[in-house]
Design goal:
Blueprint lengths: L3 E7 L2 E7 L3 E5 L6 H16 L1 E5 L2 E3 L10 E3 L4 E3 L2 E6 L2 E6 L9 E5 L2 E7 L8 E2 H4 L6 H8 L4 E4 L3 H5 L2 E2 L17 H9 L5 H12 L3 E10 L2 E8 L4 E3 L5 H11 L8 E5 L7 H18 L2 E5 L3 H4 L7 E5 L8 E4 L6 H5 L4 H7 L7 H4 L5
Parallel strand pairs: 3-19, 3-20, 9-11, 13-18, 18-19
Antiparallel strand pairs: 1-2, 1-8, 4-5, 4-12, 6-7, 8-9, 10-11, 14-16, 15-16, 16-17, 20-21
Helix pairs in contact: 7-8
Length: 370
């Protein structure tokens, strides 16, 4: 599990350190840096356990947003590197941008903790593959660090992607969405149905409980290689994917997550999208169950007080950006002034809503009662 994430000169993150819990949410105004934090975490985890390669002027599997040359830090009067780092059990892993023509990876031991450091530029012709470069040459202690950073899944579901037909997932292949918007959902459900265990029955039971008009959910073959979701109502009416409500689509996507290919971190953008307020609580319960039952860390960026109502104070951080020069600031909500007094009056999400201004959340950080 990632205990602390640090970013420096990474997008709007000038110098930010964030304490994390197994289930954690970032709240705050638009354009404050919540999504950049999630994407920075995804990048450092991908470096630790995955692969980046350049193809047709595009980084795959995603753009790491790390510059390949030194970043100018005008306030410091000298060149500075973009840095991403994670503290995990037993050590620390760091990625820094650098001049692609210099530097080599290295492993250091500092004090009582092992620091696994990577200095590698992402130049036009370069690629990074953690498994081929490092995995056979690291010490056992460093393996334990990397084991906690094997894979990250970023999801920001969109209804149009969830409705799209998709191909079949071959038997024995791990199920997963094909992009962060949820493309590939019919194939994911085809794979879940074919598992032969209780997964599909569990999903059906939860859907029938929360959506009482639904009789059946299925996957319809629309060609020899293409699948589409289909829903049958108790009235007998059958709905194709383009007729299914957004709320049901989003719920089906979240309900599939516990049965996807295992990862070490799940990063969720706006889990509240398209959902009735009562269903938002169900989604947070699904995500907490993933944490409790599988040990996977779940980190969210949200604008919904209803999501925050389902969390504990130590599981929420407030993200603001007072100015472009200062960059993003992250503060645990429990460390805001008069928190104990305020939280005795408001539920956690309502506390944020009551003291938010949508800009830099100034009322939340003022000591005087509102």
């Amino acid at each position: 599990m990632i205990k602390t994430f640090h970013a420096k000169n990474y997008g709007c993150l000038k110098d930010v350190t964030v304490g994390l819990t197994p289930l954690h949410a970032f709240i705050g105004p638009n354009d404050s840096g919540k999504s950049t934090i999630l994407r920075g975490i995804r990048t450092v985890v991908q470096f630790a356990g995955g692969k980046f390669e350049r193809r047709e002027d595009k980084w795959l599997p995603f753009d790491p947003m790390l510059p390949s040359e030194f970043v100018k830090a005008e306030a410091m009067g000298k060149a500075a590197r973009a840095t991403l780092a994670c503290d995990v059990e037993g050590g620390h892993y760091r990625v820094r941008s650098m001049d692609p023509e210099s530097g080599t990876p290295h492993v250091n031991e500092r004090g009582s903790q092992l620091f696994f450091e990577l200095d590698r530029g992402l130049g036009q012709e370069r690629s990074w593959d953690a498994s081929s470069v490092y995995w056979d040459n690291v010490f056992e202690d460093q393996r334990k660090i990397l084991d906690q950073l094997r894979t990250a899944r970023l999801i920001h579901f969109g209804a149009s992607a969830l409705r799209e037909p998709s191909g079949l997932i071959p038997f024995g292949t791990s199920a997963g969405f094909l992009d962060e918007r949820g493309y590939g959902l019919p194939g994911v459900y085809q794979a879940i149905i074919g598992r032969g265990d209780d997964a599909w029955a569990n999903i059906r039971a939860s859907v029938e409980k929360l959506f009482p008009t639904i009789k059946r959910i299925g996957v319809l073959p629309i060609s020899p290689t293409r699948l589409e979701l289909e829903v049958e109502l108790k009235s007998g009416m059958k709905l194709r994917a383009n007729q299914i409500s957004e709320g049901l689509l989003y719920y089906l996507a979240f309900a599939a997550i516990p049965y996807l290919e295992p990862v070490s971190v799940i990063l969720v953008e706006e889990p509240e999208n398209g959902l009735h307020p009562a269903r938002i609580a169900e989604i947070v319960r699904i995500l907490r169950a993933i944490v409790d039952e599988s040990g996977v860390q779940v980190l969210m960026a949200t604008h919904s007080p209803l999501v925050i109502n389902e969390l504990n104070p130590d599981e929420v951080s407030v993200v603001t950006r007072p100015s472009l020069e200062e960059g993003t600031k992250v503060t645990p909500i429990k460390d805001t002034p008069n928190f104990e007094k305020r939280s005795s009056v408001y539920a956690l999400g309502e506390l944020w809503l009551a003291y938010a201004d949508g800009n830099v959340e100034a009322p939340l950080f003022e000591a005087a009662a509102r």
